[in-house]
Structure formats: C-alpha cells, structure tokens
Specification:
By secondary structure, the protein is of the alpha/beta class. It contains 6 helices and 29 strands. The two termini are about 30 Å apart. It binds adenosine monophosphate and magnesium ion.
Length: about 400
C-alpha cells in the first residue's frame, strides 16, 4: 500500500502529450490550443453602425447651436441600408442614410443618430439634438487588429475563444490530441439497466458512470464493454481495448476476491504494475499499469468495483491524468479550504475522501458531510460540492478544523 500523494505522483508523471490534431471549432470546447493563433483580419472588418438609426455627417450639426430646445437639423434621406448590404454611395452635406445595426458606415458619414431620436417624413429626417463625431460608430479593428495574437498556445478553449475563432473566420483549430479511452466493466453479477433483475444480480451502474465521466473530460470513448469474471474473457477484452485505446479503465475485479481477475489478466499480458493498493478510503485496491501493445504506451487504471470508489478514483486520478495528457496545465482538482461543520472520526492509516456539501458562512466555506461515506453507497454523491481530504495520520478532527476540499468537476 502506498500513500495517496505517492500514487498521484506516479500517475501524473506518466501523463504525456499525444501530439496534435486539427478539429472543427465546435468540437474544441475544453481542448487545449497546440498553436498560437493570430487574427487573419481586423474585427470588425469595416467601420459600422452600432445601432438602428441614421448615418449623418457631424459637420451638418456644427452651426445648429448649443441650446437643446432650439436645435433642429433637416437632412435629405438618401436610401436605406440593411446589415450585410454595402452602400456604395457617399454622404454629402445635408444628407443622411438610414442604417441598421451592423451595416457598414457609408463614405462621408461619421456618426449615427438613433432611430428613436429622429422624425422621418417624405424623404427627409429631422434631428432635434446635437450630434458628435463618432457617436454610435464601431470602428474597424476596435475589437481585434489584424495580426494580433488571439489565442496563445496552451489556452484551454472556452466558449469565448471558440466564438472569437469563428468571428475571425476559422473553421478549425489545432489542439493537443484527446486520448482514446476504453471502459471495461467486470462482474458476473451485473445486469444491463432496462432489463429485469434476477435474484442476486445488481444493475451495472459503473458503465454509465464511467462513460459519462469520460465524456465530461473531452476524451474520446472508443469502447465500453461488460466483461464476465473469466480470465480468458478479461484477457481478450484487454487485448482488444489496447489495440484501439490510449487509456483503459476497468471497474471491479481488482481486489483480493477469488474472481478478481484484472491483475491476473494484466500479468498474462505482461503489463507493468506501477502500483496496486493506495492508503486511501474509498478505493484502496486501485491499480495502475502501463502496457506496451503498440508503439505508444497504453495506461490501465484498475478501479475497484464499488461505485463510490469509481467516482473518487476517477476524480482524483483519471481526470487529472486525462487533463494533463490533453495539455491542461491546471490538471489538479480545484481546491478550497473549508472548516468542518462537525467532528469526524476515522481510523488512522488511510486518507479518507469525505463527501461534503459546502456553504459560505462568515466569509469562509463550511463543509458538512453529505451522509454515509461507504464505498458501496452512491446516493450521498448526488448533491455534493466536493471531497474533503481527511489526512491519513489523524483519527479525529474536531468541528471547526480546517480541511482541504477538492471540488468535484462533473
Ligand atoms: P469487486 O471489486 O469486483 O469485488 O466489486 C466490489 C463491489 O462493487 C461489489 O459489491 C460489486 O457488486 C460492486 N460492483 C462491481 N461492479 C459494479 C458495477 N459495474 N456497477 C455496480 N456495482 C458494481
Ligand atoms: Mg467483481
């Protein structure tokens, strides 16, 4: 059994980039840019109107006086211009052009008067206020200048980045390649949800859990299979998975039971054991292997079968590993410091992950246990905010003790 910190370090040390891929921007959310991107054009590409109104020459207002009640400027309306249509003409003194938001500002005009402030009749408009140069005009390049860096290498692509790429006309973006993940769930007792349940069987929740967890990381799920507790079946499943995946995640069969065959199958395939058993609760039997089936290594996370152990192992080990492989620099769980709302008693020797809810009180986070903490219990995960790390060395924490809480990222 190794300490949590050591196990974590052994996993993270093996997380390496997988090269790059160029993908459509709408598929790039949460991926990491592998190249610097510069704006190929200025934004906006042309000076345009910020509102629905009338494009005018501000000099037509220079002699109109300052006193508000006396201002009245009458201009001849040339035409109407909608967004997306380019008006080729020039506005001269005494003229105006009706424009919609986003329409290019016509040559000669330098301001736009809001529609609400103008009276229009019989081909003329009347403006009863002063108009200053530049009013309601969006200048070409005021958002982005051509050639400006819009995305640095290593940026985690968020909705605004992807919108910005689209605004610059990009269809695709080059990112670090997402790992391909195969999920293998072991257990003779597992029944497919949606079918009837024979006595002694339970519904397989880990297949669903792992599939959706993988999806939240942006990794590519390439297989999800239920495997019988049969050595040959597990070996075959491993071989098939290793041929198509960078990461294999198994659930169950990694403990010390008679039908715990993940380790036996890994040994037959000459997988290299990095560690088995971590001084933590839940998920003590967690195993981690590397396999070299193809040119690149394949990583095998052997998660214990209990759903609580699956959720915690995924958040603490698998998700940070996947994030780092995908190029995230910030791959560790987000952490906050909280004070315990109540005491906690535990056995010494293993770090405990305590499911907690958080609330802000007097400027600090207060952590309250979400209920039962056993690894077989899934219901108490439903509304948690995070996992409090209760150190291995202690067996009692009084109410008010400060603890570190890893926020869950699902
Ligand atoms: P194991 O590690 O295979 O001994 O499994 C430990 C516990 O987790 C047993 O009670 C299993 O029935 C349960 N378990 C294993 N796999 C699943 C699964 N896919 N869905 C729900 N429970 C499971
Ligand atoms: Mg089992």
């Amino acid at each position: 059994m190794i300490p949590y910190e050591k196990a974590k370090q052994l996993v993270i040390a093996r997380a390496k980039l997988l090269g790059t891929e160029t993908i459509n921007i709408e598929d790039a959310l949460g991926k990491v840019a592998a190249r610097i991107v510069r704006a190929p054009l200025s934004l906006p590409p042309f000076t345009n109107s910020a509102i629905d109104g009338y494009a005018v020459k501000s000099e037509d207002f220079s002699g109109a006086g300052e006193e508000k009640s006396k201002v009245s400027v009458r201009l001849r309306l040339l035409a109407e211009q909608r967004a997306g249509v380019f008006y080729g003409g020039t506005i001269r003194r005494g003229e105006a052009l009706k424009v919609m938001t986003g329409a290019a500002l016509p040559r000669g005009a330098d301001a736009v008067v809001p529609r609400e402030e103008v009276e229009e009749s019989q081909g003329y408009i009347e403006v009863k206020r002063q108009v200053k140069k530049g009013e309601n005009v969006r200048l070409a390049g005021e958002d982005l200048k051509k050639g400006q860096v819009i995305i640095e290498r290593g940026t985690v692509l968020r909705p605004p980045h992807l919108g910005m790429l689209a605004a610059c006309g990009f269809r695709q973006v080059t990112v670090y390649r997402s790992p391909r993940v195969a999920v293998l769930v072991t257990g003779d007792e597992l029944a497919q949800p949606g079918t009837s349940l024979r006595r002694g069987m339970i519904y397989d929740s880990n297949s669903t859990l792992l599939q959706v967890l993988v999806r939240t990381t942006g990794a590519r799920l390439v297989a999800a299979k239920r495997v019988k507790d049969d050595l040959k079946a597990v070996i075959t499943a491993f071989e098939r998975a290793a041929a198509i995946a960078d990461i294999i995640i198994t659930s169950g069969g990694v403990s010390v039971g008679d039908y715990d065959l993940v380790k036996a199958a890994a040994a037959v395939l000459k997988a290299r054991l990095v560690f088995w058993q971590v001084a933590q609760k839940p998920a003590k039997p967690l195993a981690f292997y590397t396999l070299s089936r193809r040119k690149e290594p394949v990583y095998l996370f052997g998660l214990p079968g209990n759903p609580g152990a699956v959720l915690i192992s995924f958040e603490e080990y698998v998700r940070p590993f996947i994030k780092k492989v995908m190029g995230w620099k910030d791959y560790e769980p987000r952490a906050v410091e909280a004070v315990l709302a109540h005491e906690i008693k535990k056995k010494k020797g293993r770090l405990n992950f305590w499911r907690v809810k958080l609330q802000m009180e007097d400027g600090q986070w207060l952590a309250t246990s979400a209920g039962a903490q056993e690894s077989g219990i899934i219901s108490t995960f439903a509304d948690i905010h995070g996992l409090a790390l209760i150190p291995a060395a202690c067996d009692y924490l009084a109410a008010g003790t400060k603890v570190k809480v890893h926020l869950v990222d699902w």
